[in-house]
Amino acid sequence: MPYRYRCHDCRAEQPEAGDRAEAEAFRDRHRQWAHGGLAPDNEQIERVPAGGRDHDGRYVSSSAALLLLAVLAVVSLGARALGH
Ligand SMILES: [Zn+2]
Predict the structure, then answer these.
(1) pLDDT band for position 50 (cuts 50, 70, 90)
(2) 2 C-alpha vs ligand 1 centroid, how far in Å?
(3) Which residues 6+ apart lie within 8 Å of 46 measured at CB?
(4) Rounded to an integer, what distance in angstroms lies between the CA atom of residue 61 and that of residue 67?
(5) Domain ranges of the chain
(6) 24 CA to middle of ligand 1, Å?
(7) Which of 8, 22, 56, 68 is placed for a possible disulfide with 42 were both Cys, Cβ 3.0 to 4.6 Å?
(8) How confident is the model at residue 62 (pLDDT cuts 50, 70, 90)?
(9) Is pLDDT of 28 > 70?
């Protein structure tokens, strides 16, 4: 599940959702740049619903494809074993 940092005080948000560590790194940089190292009142790290175009979504899709190939390979081997 990707995360995105959002600062409501500045009406700013992290342009690309990433993992939790990326969102926290973005938050730290934003605090330095925009707030002199202080933590603004209205900031949050939000979970971004898994969509088709974010990094994690693609990762899950390729994992599912690999799993499907592995299952097909096992089924194929099983069918050959039964055939003999
Ligand atoms: Zn801010």
Answers:
(1) confident
(2) 21
(3) 3, 4, 6
(4) 10
(5) 1-49, 51-84
(6) 13
(7) 8
(8) confident
(9) yes
Placement of tokens 């938050």 in the chain: 27
Task: Retrieve residue 35's tokens.
Answer: 């707030």
As beta bridge partners, residue 62 has none
Residue 7 burial by CB count (10 A; 0-12/13-18/19+): exposed, middle or buried?
buried
Spatial distance between the Cα atoms of 3 and 45, rounded to a whole number of angstroms: 6
User: Span 50-63, mean pLDDT?
Assistant: 61
Q: Report CA(71)–ligand 1 centroid distance (Å).
A: 48
Q: How confident is the model at residue 12 (pLDDT cuts 50, 70, 90)?
A: very high
Cα 29 to middle of ligand 1, angstroms: 10
